[in-house]
């Protein structure tokens, strides 16, 4: 499933800010589709330099030193590696081109103005918080229900229940 370019695919003229958000959500949906194979976890889409003050490695980054092509979500050979890394605590940090920069990453952003619905845990709180202080988009797969939540701009942008995902 390739990530599309809305301006080219539909031939629309969009302001850069709108096009950027559409592209973020498009990549988020692509990663959500991958999540059916990966299990509970969180992913953060954004520029590593902007995110860095709010990230801390829980373990040595297992992806450090590998070439970008080998860490691309578009590389089918990388999917098994993602499955294996998904069992670790912490988030994946994925840049806007689909390159996974790190795994086992702790999100350490202050809880801001965002609100979570009752029953959502620490993964969701951390994902929402990182989107309140950066321009990142965060995706969380609930360990208990399988629900996929996408956070953007300090708000819940999308929630997909397991039944809608086709288990």
Task: Explain what you see.
This protein is of the alpha+beta class. The chain has a single domain, classed as DNA integrity scanning protein, DisA, N-terminal domain (YojJ-like (1), CATH 3.40.1700.10. The chain is built from 6 helices and 7 strands. It has helices spanning 6-10, 16-38, 48-51, 79-85, 122-133, 162-165; strands spanning 41-45, 55-57, 91-94, 100-107, 137-141, 148-152, 155-160. It has a 7-stranded mixed β-sheet, sandwiched between helices. β6 (148-152) and β7 (155-160) form a beta hairpin. The radius of gyration is 15 Å and the shape is globular. The relative contact order is 0.19. Residues 1-15 have low confidence and may be disordered.
Taken together, the total number of domains comes to: 1
Q: What share of residues is helical?
A: 25-40%
| CATH evolutionary superfamily | DNA integrity scanning protein, DisA, N-terminal domain
- Strand segment count: 7
Would you state the CATH class? Answer: Alpha Beta
Provide the spatial order of strands within the biggest beta sheet: 2-4-3-1-5-6-7
Rg computed from alpha carbons, rounded to a whole number of angstroms: 15 Å
**How many distinct helices?**
6
**Average predicted local confidence, pLDDT:** 77
Largest sheet: 7 strands, mixed
What overall geometry do the principal axes of the alpha carbons give? globular
| Structural class designation | alpha+beta
Poorly predicted parts: 1-15
Q: Distance N terminus to C terminus?
A: 18 Å
Strand content: 15-25%
């Amino acid at each position: 499933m390739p990530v599309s370019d809305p301006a080219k695919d539909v031939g629309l003229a969009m302001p850069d800010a709108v096009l950027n958000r559409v592209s973020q959500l498009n990549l988020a949906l692509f990663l959500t589709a991958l999540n059916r194979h990966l299990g509970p976890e969180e992913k953060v889409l954004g520029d590593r330099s902007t995110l860095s003050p709010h990230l801390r490695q829980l373990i040595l980054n297992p992806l450090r030193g590998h070439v970008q092509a080998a860490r691309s979500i578009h590389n089918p050979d990388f999917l098994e590696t993602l499955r294996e890394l998904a069992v670790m605590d912490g988030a994946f940090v994925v840049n806007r081109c689909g390159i996974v920069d790190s795994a086992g990453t702790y999100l350490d952003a202050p809880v801001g103005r965002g609100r979570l619905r009752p029953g959502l845990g620490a993964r969701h709180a951390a994902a929402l918080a990182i989107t309140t202080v950066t321009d990142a988009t965060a995706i969380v797969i609930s360990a208990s229900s399988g629900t996929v939540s996408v956070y953007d701009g300090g708000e819940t942008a999308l929630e997909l229940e397991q039944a809608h995902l086709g288990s």
